[in-house]
Write a structure and sequence with these properties.
This protein is α/β, with parallel strands linked by helices. About 25% of the residues lie in helices and about 25% in strands. The protein has three domains: about 230 residues, Rossmann fold (3-Layer(aba) Sandwich), CATH 3.40.50; about 150 residues, Orthogonal Bundle (Glutamyl-tRNA Synthetase, domain 2); about 120 residues, Ribosomal Protein L25, Chain P, CATH 2.40.240.10. Helix 2 packs across helix 11 and helix 7 crosses helix 8. It starts with 8 loop residues before the first helix and ends in a 9-residue tail after the last strand. It binds adenosine-5'-triphosphate and magnesium ion. One of its GO terms (molecular function) is glutamine-tRNA ligase activity. Its EC number is 6.1.1.18. It is found in: Cytoplasm.
Length: about 550
């Protein structure tokens, strides 16, 4: 979009910093995913924001894996995250890992202990929680809080050396048990976890907490603007306190509202449940709000970036309608996708007065929305064709302008036909429609003088290829499944996948290429699925042509 837009609040902050000459005019952001799942559309928002902001001001962005929790993390996730960020169209300056800083973070912890600002606490998690007080009552200290520096240094070294089991001790910041901000009431810095880490192996059995790792990692990398979501606002004073006490590079934290999308869930924990419990086929199931799911569904990077741009940057959380995402992909594909004909719910139509055995080739533009039509392709026509069952009504309803007995319609890029009779099976279902055609009504050379109101798509029976077509609906039946009574999975839409097989497609579609979008005329935008084989083509519907979804 070319119209001038006003700056969002993060751009304003960066511009002020630049004007004040802060950090020598340098802008360095980071995208810090925890490799414990696949990225989703919410992460895309964060990616577009972090990378976009740096790009706009000549800066750079680091990709930093926040891998401080060995139990849930995996290289599979690291690889998928890299693939997804690249696919969205962004290049990181450096690929970094919080785990690379474990030595430094340990040194930082020692520094705080030596300053009398951290102590080893033997309390259980329950005891610590009980001693924390409530928002209206201050916390109470315990006997461990007054340990000497020497004792703390020794105990912390012993924790690192593996002398204690999980949960036996923690390292806490000695901060302010009376603070109105619960996060400042002696927050945990380290916990004991005898677990194998996907990068550091068994080198460590103590792992830093998010609050101690994140800000320090930012400072080590000299990140100028550390952007996170609003739930971290109460963590900001702690972020600043650690940096100040350790006298590190003054990275600053800024918060924006996370993206919430309706009719789906976005927490990685919930998405993981959908995968492991088999509610979907995998992280890249086309119904998932993951980047890999959207990609497989046929979404383009440009459409996702445009979506993130349109929702803007807010400070207060809100719910974005998935219709906006669908709008963005329609806009993009309308410009890019080639048009082809495919019949999803076929019924045979016989043109009685068309010569048996004859084949004619018609031609149609690849994309009438493109300036030069994007070239054209040819497709065969014969005496027998497939049309959509819904494009015929024996007795037409009011305002029904498609085919009926006695009614006329144009076959796209071909002839005008007139319905004559039907053949039915024992149950009364129509198995064949018979019609006549007007030879003088040929598209592009129509001398019939007739105008008809309807045009329908079709595929030649003799030449059609078959395909499996997968139609998707929303994964959940309610707008905010996480906010309903009971389990979010109770609200899964049982009809979120509808498989059609066989659908008949024009022969040229046999050459469809994975990832290249195509419009099945009147039926929506589709993309070849990775399940396709030479013998069996599989298409996913990305989105319908119009927003046809009405609240049930
Ligand atoms: P989830 O709750 O889905 O597991 P997370 O916040 O734990 O997400 P991280 O891997 O820690 O996931 O997130 C990496 C970055 O992406 C963080 O800066 C986080 O704030 C941001 N992010 C995560 N979810 C969203 C969202 N829905 N909207 C915007 N940014 C998000
Ligand atoms: Mg997280």
């Amino acid at each position: 979009m070319s119209e001038e837009k006003s700056l969002n609040f993060l751009e304003e902050i960066v511009e002020e910093d630049l004007a004040a000459g802060k950090h020598g005019g340098r802008v360095l952001t980071r995208f810090p995913p925890e490799p414990n799942g696949y990225l989703h559309i919410g992460h895309a928002k964060s990616i577009c924001l972090n990378f976009g902001l740096a790009q706009r001001y000549g800066g750079k962005t680091n990709l930093r894996f926040d891998d401080t929790n060995p139990v849930k993390e995996d290289v599979e996730y690291v690889d998928s995250i890299k693939e997804d960020v690249k696919w969205l169209g962004f290049d990181w300056a450096q690929e970094l890992y919080a785990s690379d800083y474990f030595d430094k973070l340990y040194e930082f912890a020692l520094t705080l202990i030596k300053k009398g600002l951290a102590y080893v606490d033997d309390s259980t998690a329950e005891e610590i929680a009980a001693q924390k007080g409530t928002p209206t009552e201050p916390g109470t200290g315990n006997e461990y809080r007054n340990r000497s520096i020497e004792e703390n240094l020794q105990l912390f070294a012993d924790m690192k050396a593996g002398k204690y089991p999980d949960g036996a001790k923690v390292l806490r910041a000695k901060l302010d048990l009376a603070s109105s901000n619960m996060h400042l009431r002696d927050p945990l810095m380290y916990r004991i976890k005898h677990a194998h880490h996907h990068r550091t192996g068994d080198a460590w059995c103590i792992y830093p907490m998010y609050d101690f790792a994140h800000g320090q990692s930012d400072a080590i990398e000299e990140i100028t603007h550390s952007i996170c979501t609003v739930e971290f606002i109460p963590h900001r004073p702690l972020y600043e306190w650690f940096i100040e006490q350790l006298e590190l590079f003054p990275s600053k934290q800024y918060e924006f509202a996370r993206l919430n999308l309706n009719y789906t869930v976005m927490s990685k924990r919930k998405l993981l449940q959908l995968v492991t419990e088999g509610h979907v086929e995998g992280w890249d199931d086309p119904r998932m709000p993951t980047i890999s799911g959207l990609r497989r569904r046929g979404y383009t990077p440009a459409s996702i970036r445009e979506f993130c741009e349109r929702i803007g940057v807010a400070k207060r959380e809100n719910m974005i309608d998935v219709g906006l995402l669908e709008f963005c992909i329609r806009e993009d594909l309308n410009k890019k996708a080639w048009r082809r004909m495919a019949v999803l719910d076929p019924v045979k139509l016989v043109i009685d007065n068309y010569p048996e055995g004859k084949t004619e080739y018609f031609s149609g533009e690849n994309n009438p929305e493109a300036e030069d039509g994007d070239g054209s392709r040819e497709f065969p026509f014969g005496r027998e064709i497939w049309i959509e069952r819904e494009d015929f009504m024996e007795v037409p309803a009011k305002k029904y302008f498609r085919l009926s007995i006695g009614g006329m319609v144009r076959l796209k890029n071909a002839y005008i036909i007139k319905g004559e009779s039907v053949v039915k099976d024992a149950e009364g279902n129509i198995t064949e429609i018979h019609c006549s055609y007007l030879p003088e009504s040929k598209s592009g050379n129509d001398t019939s003088g007739l105008t008809v109101k309807g045009t329908i798509h079709w595929v030649s029976v003799e030449h059609a290829k078959t395909a499996e077509v997968r139609l998707y609906d929303r994964l959940f039946q309610v707008e905010d499944p996480s906010n309903e009574d009971g389990d979010f999975k109770d609200y899964i839409n049982p009809n979120s996948l509808h498989i059609i097989s066989p659908a008949y497609i024009e022969p040229d579609l046999a050459n469809a290429i994975a990832g290249v979008p195509v419009q099945f005329m009147r039926k929506g935008y589709f993309v070849l699925d990775k399940d396709s084989t030479v013998d069996k083509l599989v298409f996913n519907r990305t989105v319908t042509l119009k927003d046809g979804w009405v609240k049930k």
